[in-house]
Write a structure and sequence with these properties.
The complex is a heterodimer of chains A (501) and B (326). With 501 residues, chain A is of the alpha/beta class. Chain A contains 16 helices and 23 strands. In chain A, helix 8 crosses helix 16 and helix 13 runs parallel beside helix 14. The longest helix of chain A has 16 residues. Chain A is elongated. Chain B has one domain. In chain B, strands 1-2 form a two-stranded antiparallel ribbon. In chain B, a hairpin with a 2-residue loop joins strand 1 and strand 2. With 326 residues, chain B is mainly α. Chain B contains 13 helices and 2 strands, in the order H-H-H-H-E-E-H-H-H-H-H-H-H-H-H. Chain B starts with a helix and ends in a 13-residue tail after the last helix. The chains are: A alpha/beta (501), B mainly alpha (326). At the A-B interface, helix 2 of A face helix 6, helix 7 and helix 13 of B.
Chain lengths: 501, 326
């Protein structure tokens, strides 16, 4: 067989957002009847590349070839007309409209009546996608919604179908159905791009894979013939796992979690046991969207658990306590979202200082706020943590990400907490500020505090953690000493292929 | 029933229809606006501007008809002719005036992405102020009122009454059965998704806002051409009631129609309370007078308790500012 023409080909495609390089000189070719996996960590540039292909974004450099001819895909309509269908990770469905109406939106002609319903049902049957056309979308499960997205894309008879992390919201059974559909589509000649973190899935369904890291193609392989270890290593890169560090003396247990299970909306959390010792940094790794927010909420008390004994702070049960009661036990918390969660964007730094110091008796005296002391405290924080600000009276939103992050972290560290729980401490923060925040965390640990860091940044966790556990699908895996982890084991755990140990 | 009772009831119903019509017109227009995800609280202002310009047009047309006679002295009040064409011209002026004011709202909220509620409230205040000052400028203190002696009628009702009734199924069909309607609803439901599918969200919304403004203008014109003469604040809060009526009707044209006619009937009976219930005490009458408002609050509370009803009908992006992803 002669070399077939790729359906879509990107040649040296680059895209920058400010200083961040999302894609750099990416070459990718997807052929008809191919299920092509696109692998990479969060922020590796997969979504940007797909947005360029389906016309939502324009490349800064490089060219796109559609069936061998150079094209410019200026908007999604053009992409659809060419035959590129995309199923987004976050469904672009209209909740108040019926299934049929949602689907009708993407096709011309009749939008109502039996003919359309019949067409939908025919197609649904052909690809094994069960749907009920008259149901309203908000009543449906994630899996059903995704089937509608796929049907909607299929009704346009695309030649190329892009599935952006389609299995992240599916149950294993639903995922299996999806794979069958994908195989049927590929058998009919469609090209499919399958974005996923889960290597097992990629191995079971894909026949080509391109691996991205930090915006660049770092390798391609046939996933059926490659080992998950080698793919994980390509994804994560060869990192030095045994960082040089001073050995800390680990003291008694300060924070304990036992048998915590929670479910909220469509997220669940399961932590069988977790113990933080004085003087240690405990890292929680995991791909975004695996329950990090819920884990933080459960530990900080934003979501309380039914069993009062399930969380103990310095031996005192605190399962039913909210954040302020837990703060009184000298546990402090820094949530992920700087603007809106850790700090109120439109309030100034002084008032933002007050927010986590409500229980501080030197500031809150029988309900009256000691403004003078509060201002001093805010000044202390900004000085100690080198927060550059245009005056303490300026709103938090005026600070740069790095400076605000230093402020919200410093606000807690300055209180010398016995326990510090911190979610994504350096997310979206410049390198210098990030380094300072990590230093501050290590210093705090050295002074005898127990610290838990939830982060998507593996390098960061490898740098500062003493022990590490992986959060996958809301379940916190077994904690291991940092020196006992290998990069393969981490990669497997993060992609859900860890052997039941 | 005695003949008096029958004629009283017919009278009551006729009055109810007349009172309900401006409410229905304004609410139907705003319904389309809200379905597209825009919350325009400026209905009252647009009604007032529509009322003023409808009235000015009618006044001028009346004078022109008079001048055409060219013989002084013939132009007497009783002999002024006001044709159906003039009536339609006046209505058109009102609709255009309402739509122009709505265009200001559209430019600020869609073009400059300003807050819907703030601009909408501003529009209501602006409409009230502008219509007052323009009105007193134009008419002065003493003016002869417009006598629309000969309302163009069909089957014993004003044209606009039939128009408002026809618009109920028309808007229902447009929204539920046509592609245009589907696009409008989709834009209102989830503007990000609609944008991602390649629809120009601000432009679609702008057209809906213009339509809403025109309908509000018509509603205002109906008040001054059919109910009463122009005066300051002639719409007496009907624009606000139209907004409540949409919630009351859960964004459905047919329910909005029913709601409007219930309001109309309550008002009509309110005006005839002494005839209806001569023996009632004042307190009871007060309660009946406030009943439309209490009724609205009750229904709104009941509706908001039903997530399915809200989800099914309330536009998901209502009042939210659309920022296209960069």
């Amino acid at each position: 067989m002669s070399e077939p023409t790729p359906l879509i080909e990107t040649r040296r495609v680059s895209k920058r957002f400010g200083d961040v390089i999302a894609n750099q000189a990416i070459d990718l070719a997807v052929y008809p009847s191919q299920i092509h996996a696109l692998l990479g960590e969060n922020g590796a540039g997969k979504s940007t590349l797909m947005k360029i292909i389906c016309g939502l974004q324009q490349p800064d450099e490089g060219e796109l070839l559609w069936q061998g001819a150079a094209v410019e895909i200026r908007n999604p309509k053009i992409a659809r007309a060419m035959g590129i269908g995309m199923v987004h990770q976050h469904f672009a469905l209209f909740e108040g409209l019926s299934v049929a109406e949602n689907i009708a939106f993407s096709i011309d002609g009749a939008i109502q009546g039996r003919a359309l319903e019949k067409q939908i049902l025919n197609l649904a049957e052909r690809f094994g996608l069960a749907v009920e056309p008259s149901k309203l979308v908000f009543e449906l499960s994630a899996g059903e919604r995704q089937r509608i997205e796929i049907l909607r894309a299929l009704l346009l008879t695309p030649k190329l179908l892009i599935l952006d992390e389609p299995t992240s919201v599916l149950t294993p059974q639903e995922a299996e159905q999806l794979f069958n559909t994908m195989r049927k589509l590929a058998a009919e000649g469609h090209g499919i791009v399958f974005i996923s973190h889960k290597l097992k899935e990629v191995q079971s369904v894909c026949d080509a894979a391109t691996i991205l890291r930090a915006g660049q193609v770092v390798g391609s392989c046939d996933p059926r013939e490659s080992s998950p270890e080698s793919m994980a290593e390509l994804m994560l890169g060869s990192r030095n796992i045994t960082a040089q560090r001073e050995q800390r003396t680990v003291g008694e247990t300060r924070f304990e979690v036992a048998g915590l299970t929670l479910s909220q909306a469509d997220h669940t959390l399961q932590v069988e046991s977790l113990a933080l010792a004085a003087g240690e940094v405990f890292g929680v790794a995991g791909v975004a969207g695996n329950g990090q927010e819920l884990l933080f909420a459960a530990l900080s008390g934003e979501v309380t658990c039914a069993d009062h004994q399930c969380i103990k702070i310095d031996g005192i049960a605190a399962g039913n306590n909210g954040p302020n009661l837990r703060r009184q036990l000298n546990a402090m918390f820094v949530p992920e979202e700087r603007l809106g969660h850790a700090a109120v964007p439109f309030m100034n730094l002084i008032d933002n200082t007050l927010l986590t110091n409500i229980a501080n008796v030197s500031i809150n005296r029988k309900g009256l706020v000691n403004r003078k002391r509060l201002q001093e405290l805010a000044a202390e924080i900004t000085t100690a943590f080198d927060v550059k600000h245009g005056g303490l009276n300026r709103a938090a939103k005026n600070l740069s990400g790095g400076n605000l992050q230093k402020f919200v972290v410093g606000r807690e560290i300055i209180k010398r907490p016995g326990i510090l729980i911190i979610n994504q401490p350096t997310w979206g923060v410049d390198a210098l500020s990030a380094a300072k925040i990590r230093q501050a965390l290590l210093k705090l640990a050295n002074s005898g505090s127990a610290i838990l860091v939830i982060s998507q940044d593996l390098d960061e966790l490898l740098e500062i953690s003493d022990r590490l556990a992986v959060l996958h699908h809301g379940r916190l895996g077994r904690a291991r000493d940092i020196n006992d982890w290998t990069i393969e084991a981490l990669g497997l755990a993060m992609t859900g292929s860890e052997q039941a140990a | 029933m005695t003949p008096e009772t029958v004629s009283f009831l017919i009278n009551l119903l006729a009055a109810a229809v007349l009172l309900a019509t401006p409410l229905l017109l304004a609410a139907l227009g705003e319904l389309v606006v809200e379905k597209s995800g825009v919350l325009n609280l400026g209905v009252e202002g647009m009604m007032l501007i529509g009322a003023l310009f409808g009235y000015i047009a009618a006044y001028n047309l009346q004078t022109i008809t008079c001048l055409e006679e060219l013989i002084p002295g013939f132009c007497q009040k009783e002999e002024r002719v006001f044709t159906t064409g003039d009536y339609l011209m006046a209505l058109c002026s009102a609709a255009i005036a309402g739509a122009l004011l709505a265009a200001v709202f559209g430019f600020l909220t869609q073009g400059l992405r300003a807050n819907h509620v703030a601009v909408g409230l501003g529009l209501s205040i602006l409409g009230a102020g502008l219509s007052n000052s323009l009105g007193s400028n134009f008419f002065g203190v003493n003016y002869t009122s417009v006598q629309v002696a000969d309302h163009p009628e069909m089957f014993g009702q004003d044209l606009l009454v039939w128009f408002s009734l026809i618009m109920v199924p028309v808007i229902w069909y447009l929204l539920q059965r046509t592609r245009t309607g589907l696009v409008i609803r989709a834009v209102g439901e989830n503007h990000d998704s609609a944008f991602a599918l390649g629809y120009n969200v601000p432009r679609i919304r702008f057209y809906c806002i213009l339509f809403g403004g025109a309908m509000a203008g018509l509603a205002g014109a109906f008040i001054v051409l059919v109910h009463v003469d122009w005066k300051e604040g002639v719409t007496v809060g009907k624009g606000w009631l139209a907004l409540a009526l949409i919630l009351f009707g859960t964004w459905r044209p047919m329910r909005v129609l029913i709601g409007a006619y219930i309001f109309g009937l309550l008002w009509a009976s309110e005006l005839r309370l002494d005839n209806l219930f001569p023996n009632w005490q004042l307190e009871w009458k007060t309660i009946l007078t406030t009943s439309p408002y209490i009724f609205t609050i009750l229904v709104l509370v009941l509706i908001s308790r039903n997530p399915r009803l809200i989800h099914q009908n309330a536009p998901g992006s209502l009042g939210k500012i659309f920022n296209p992803p960069s």
